[in-house]
Amino acid sequence: MQVAKKSSAEISMSNTMVINNESSATTMKLGSTYEMVSQLASSNAVVLFSVSGCCMCTVAKRLLFGLGVGPTIVELDHHTAGPDIQAVLYHLASGGQHQPVPAIFVGGKFLGGIETLMACHINGTLVPLLKDAGALWL
Questions:
Q1: Where are the domains of the chain?
Q2: Secretion signal: which residues (predicted)?
Q3: What are phi and psi of 111, to 5 degrees?
Q4: What's the pTM value of the predicted model, to 2 decimals?
Q5: Could you give the CA distance from residue 86 to residue 93 in angstroms, rounded to a whole number?
């Protein structure tokens, strides 16, 4: 029995094919997760993606509850697709320059993280934004 030896170019090419197959599977998985996040955000006035025990997530929740908003909260550490959702949020958060959680969606659009939420609250644009989204009636 003769064993065929592969050249380094053939080995490199076969490794590339494996990596590309894994990459496209990951891309497909993130694509379906992105669709899930998008569907959730568009079907609720306010969605907050959080991690239990995260102090900044607690601040975001308390601010929204204090304003009278009842956001849909997704605790990523308790969700089966939590790591995949967190990867999608990481890409949405300015290409990974900011922390991915808390991540707040208002009116189906990605508002941002805690910094953006607090900035909107301080400059007075948060309440009108929440009213436009249907999260506040007064």
A1: 8-133
A2: none
A3: -80, -45
A4: 0.76
A5: 10
